[in-house]
Amino acid sequence: MRTGVWLIGARGSVAVTSMVGALAVRASLAAPLGCVTELPELRSAAVPTLGDLVFGGHDMSTVGLVKKARDLAASGVLPGALVEAVAAELDMIEVEVLPAPGGGVPCEGSPDGRVQADTAARIVSDLRAFRDRHDLARIVVVNVSSTEPVATPHPAHADLAALRAALDLPGAVLPASALYAYAALSAGCPFVDFTPSTGARLPALAELAAEARLPHAGSDGKTGETLLKSVLAPMFALRHLRVTSWSGINLLGGGDGATLADPAANAAKTASKHRVLGETLGYQPEGHTRIDHVPELGDFKTAWDLVTFQGFLGTAMRMEFTWHGCDSALAAPLVLDLARLTAAAHAAGVVGPVPELAFFFKDPIGDVPHGLAEQWTLLVEFVRGLSDATA
């Protein structure tokens, strides 16, 4: 069951950590810590193994995969010896990481007359060629690129026929993430958005996924502060304690922190982090989430949260927590999990958004529970169903 994993942002920290991790685990050089698909509850013959995965992708960066992996090792993200052990295999993957069509810019005012349909066609061609070269059963396209600002609404976003017509005209109808989702679905590939960008979250793209009989999932991988919220907020709700405020400060380094220094991208990210509280508690407590860029932190991040709440007879109380983690090391195993599970969903004939993958996301698509325990139960039942379908 050879399965392609096409990474948008393939030379970035999360993508390279994912590739190094997959190579190391399948060579028995490391344990699959962080990969929930390796837990007994989720092991299934319906899910491709790490050894089944074949990597490729697009990126605007020209930094080689081995060079990027060594940089990550120097910053404490990856073990240096592990990087050297898989360097030859990373070099083999290098030829499958292609320049982003159109330089990653979705044809805004292109002086050469290029339209977004041309860029989409190039992506489709790259995906189909990758599938043919490696005789792949399917390809899962995963967006691990930089966070975009919230998309400007366009009438063509609501209707597939109108969108197809608009993509043949000058100007940018879709943000880059949504253009990739359009191309992936057009090429017959399931799409996963690990970012809070628009991705497949447009009615026209939902229509395309249904037409192509493809699953898609997202959005915004849940790796740190929001992961804790999804555990702690249900605790307050189940104990009938009233949360009066919940504020958090997130300090990020690296490329993600630099991207989120842009106010528009920052707003998109913080919006995805807020949903869990309102959905879990049934009300939105006071408070804000702030994201600051601290270059010195590199690929690590720190979150500090203050929660105030009321107990019996209105007694005021508070809780504080600090989370310090390595973003790429937290995200990479989830990217591998999502690629494997989405491939299994595709093989089983699942179509449209996959709410059962909410366990992995801050802002999951669909009407889903936001407590981590409920999401875990949903995921286990989903994988059990995939196993039954292939038995």
Description:
This protein is an alpha/beta fold and 391 residues long. The chain folds into 2 domains: 280 residues, Rossmann fold; 101 residues, Dihydrodipicolinate Reductase, domain 2 (2-Layer Sandwich), CATH 3.30.360.10. The chain is 42% helix and 18% strand. The chain has 12 helices and 11 strands. Strands 3-2-1-4-5-6-11 form a 7-stranded parallel β-sheet, sandwiched between helices. Strand 5, helix 7 and strand 6 form a beta-alpha-beta unit. Helix 5 packs across helix 7 and helix 8 packs parallel to helix 10. The protein is globular, with a radius of gyration of 21 Å. It starts with a strand and ends with a helix. 50% of the residues are buried. Pfam families: Inos-1-P_synth, NAD_binding_5. This is Myo-inositol-1-phosphate synthase. GO terms for molecular function: inositol-3-phosphate synthase activity. Keywords: Isomerase. Belongs to the myo-inositol 1-phosphate synthase family.
Spatial gap, N to C terminus: 15 Å
Task: Please give the radius of gyration in angstroms.
Answer: 21 Å
Biggest β-sheet description: 7 strands, parallel
Can you tell me the CATH superfamily of the largest domain? NAD(P)-binding Rossmann-like Domain
Tell me the strand percentage band: 15-25%
The top-level CATH class of the largest domain is Alpha Beta
What number of domains?
A: 2
Any idea of the CATH topology of the largest domain? Rossmann fold
Question: What class do helices, strands and sheet pairing give?
Answer: alpha/beta
Low-confidence stretches: none
What is the tally of beta strands? Answer: 11
N-to-C SSE string, H for helix and E for strand: EHEHHEHEHHEHEHEHHEEEHEH
Helix fraction bin: 40-55%
Total number of helices: 12
Strand line-up in the sheet with most strands? 3-2-1-4-5-6-11
How much is the average pLDDT?
Answer: 92
| CATH architectural label of the largest domain | 3-Layer(aba) Sandwich
Task: Estimate the global geometry from the Cα principal axes.
Answer: globular
Family: Belongs to the myo-inositol 1-phosphate synthase family.
Keywords: Isomerase
Domain Myo-inositol-1-phosphate synthase GAPDH-like: 224-328
InterPro entries: Myo-inos-1-P_Synthase (IPR002587), Myo-inos-1-P_Synthase_GAPDH (IPR013021), NAD(P)-bd_dom_sf (IPR036291)
